[in-house]
Structures are given as structure tokens and as C-alpha cells.
């Protein structure tokens, strides 16, 4: 197990360093064949990743997500289209684009915005369902997500929380355990529906589980910040800015959904 990876599978430090190394090797190859300034030209082709660039790309992705989310919300709220259609279509599209982005990082400038659009459709549909059941819950979830994001960023920048080896390993193990929990719950629920009913219908159990997941998701942000910063310092190619934004979006979407779920448990009668 490589604990230098963030537990967000899309934002591993190796993802950035390997791309940076590939870029340098390409430059070295150009020099070997005697091309004048080939290394410099290859390295600067499209530029290199910067922290500012990654931030800008992340803002663009979230703007796309917000736009499609609002459209999806309005369509489902007005009954213009069935929520399951948007959920299924958005989930399938997002899954495919997420996999393509993860394995073909050079395509991130195209696939990451498309992924954001599909995620917006999914979140808009989910949010409208929760809002119909619990008025005002979406605003609360968005506000809390932004608050947690800001708090984690502050704690990272001030050094209160550092992405040390032990910290990374702990968050990685916790995230892996949650992933296994999701998978087991899904599989068992297919054959024993009463299992999920017991697990999630009980408010106390649901609250405890959701709090744990929210905390782990929040801690993943520390690893994401560290990985993105390291990626910028390693001289990764410019397209990795889009990949960084995509990876951070994965964590924040997860955090938002879990906060939404936690608030729904707290508001049950």
C-alpha cells in the first residue's frame, strides 16, 4: 500500500508526478534526436500546471455543475421530467466520464467539464427530492459543505492539519472501509431489503454512520489540497489542472451528499 497517495482515488500524488515525469522524458527524447530546444519546447507545450490554474479550472467546473444542477432541479420540481430518468442518465454518464478521466488524463480538459455537467444533473435531481421532503434542507447542506471546505482549507494552510504519512494512512484506511461498507450494503440490500431498512431507517444508526462518513470526507480534503499543491510544484502538464479540479469535485460532491443525508436524519420525526 502506498500511503503517499490521497485516499481520493482520482487525486493520487503518483498521478501528477508520473505525468510530469512523462513530460520530462518526452523532452529528453526530443534532445536525443538532436532537435534544437526540443526539451524546452516539449516541456512548455501547453504550459505546466500551476496552483492558480488549478483553482481557476476548479471554479469553472463548479460553475458548470451549478448551472446543470439548477436546470435539473427546475425540471424535476416542475414535473417536466421524471426524477429517476435524470438520476439514472446522469449517474451512468458521470460514471463513464469519471472512468475515462481517471485513465486518460490528457482528455481531462474535455471530459472533466462533461463530468461536471452530468454530476450537476444528478445533484439537482437528488436535491429536489430532499427539498420536497424537508423544506430548506438543500440550502443548509450547501452552506455546511462550503463551511467545511473553508474550515479544512484554513486548517491546511495554517498547518493545523498536515498530510503526514500517518494522517494519510489513517484517512486511506477509513475511506477504504467506507467504500467496503457501501459495497456490502448494496449487495446485501439486493437480496435482503430488510437489512438496509434496519440500517438506514433507524435515525440513531443513520446519524452515527453519516457523521463518521462526513468527517472522513472532510479529512480527504486535506489530502486533496496537499496533492494538488504537490502536483503544481512537480511541474505536471497543464491539462492536469483540469484533472485536479475533477478530483476535488469528486470529494466535495461526496461530502455534500453525505451532509444532505445527515440533515435528513436529524429532521426526521
Feature tags:
269 residues; mainly alpha; 80% helix
Would you spell out the secondary-structure blueprint of this structure?
Elements: H1 13-32, H2 38-44, H3 51-77, H4 83-103, H5 108-133, H6 137-157, H7 165-191, H8 193-201, H9 203-233, H10 240-266
Helix pairs in contact: 1-2, 1-9, 3-5, 3-10, 4-5, 5-10, 6-9, 6-10, 7-8, 7-9, 9-10
Q: Can you put this structure into words, describing what you see?
A:
The chain has one domain. It contains 10 helices and no strands. The radius of gyration is 20 Å and the shape is globular. The termini are far apart.
- Mean of residue pLDDT values: 84
Task: Tell me how many strands there are.
Answer: 0
Share in helix: over 70%
Distance between the amino and carboxyl termini? 44 Å
- Sheet/helix structural class: mainly alpha
Strand percentage: under 5%
What is the count of helical runs?
10
Taken in chain order, the helices and strands follow as: HHHHHHHHHH
Tell the overall outline.
Answer: globular
Catalogue the unreliable spans: 1-6, 28-44
Largest sheet: none
- Count of structural domains: 1
C-alpha-based Rg, rounded: 20 Å
Amino acid at each position: 500500500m502506498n500511503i503517499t497517495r490521497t485516499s481520493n482515488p482520482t487525486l493520487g500524488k503518483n498521478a501528477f508526478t508520473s505525468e510530469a515525469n512523462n513530460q520530462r522524458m518526452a523532452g529528453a527524447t526530443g534532445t536525443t534526436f538532436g532537435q534544437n530546444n526540443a526539451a524546452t519546447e516539449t516541456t512548455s507545450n501547453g504550459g505546466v500546471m500551476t496552483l492558480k490554474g488549478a483553482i481557476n479550472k476548479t471554479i469553472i467546473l463548479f460553475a458548470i455543475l451549478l448551472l446543470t444542477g439548477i436546470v435539473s432541479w427546475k425540471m424535476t420540481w416542475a414535473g417536466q421530467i421524471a426524477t429517476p430518468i435524470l438520476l439514472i442518465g446522469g449517474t451512468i454518464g458521470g460514471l463513464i466520464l469519471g472512468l475515462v478521466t481517471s485513465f486518460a488524463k490528457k482528455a481531462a480538459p474535455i471530459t472533466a467539464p462533461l463530468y461536471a455537467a452530468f454530476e450537476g444533473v444528478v445533484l439537482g435531481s437528488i436535491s429536489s427530492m430532499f427539498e420536497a421532503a424537508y423544506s430548506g434542507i438543500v440550502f443548509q447542506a450547501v452552506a455546511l459543505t462550503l463551511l467545511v471546505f473553508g474550515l479544512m482549507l484554513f486548517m491546511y494552510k495554517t498547518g493545523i492539519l498536515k498530510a503526514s504519512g500517518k494522517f494519510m494512512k489513517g484517512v486511506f484506511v477509513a475511506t477504504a472501509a467506507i467504500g467496503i461498507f457501501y459495497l456490502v450494503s448494496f449487495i446485501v440490500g439486493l437480496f435482503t431489503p430488510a437489512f438496509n431498512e434496519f440500517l438506514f431507517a433507524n435515525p440513531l444508526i443513520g446519524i452515527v454512520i453519516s457523521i463518521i462518513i462526513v468527517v472522513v470526507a472532510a479529512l480527504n480534503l486535506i489530502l486533496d489540497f496537499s496533492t494538488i499543491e504537490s502536483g503544481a510544484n512537480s511541474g505536471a502538464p497543464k491539462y492536469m489542472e483540469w484533472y485536479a479540479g475533477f478530483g476535488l469535485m469528486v470529494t466535495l460532491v461526496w461530502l455534500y451528499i453525505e451532509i444532505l443525508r445527515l440533515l435528513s436524519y436529524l429532521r426526521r420525526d
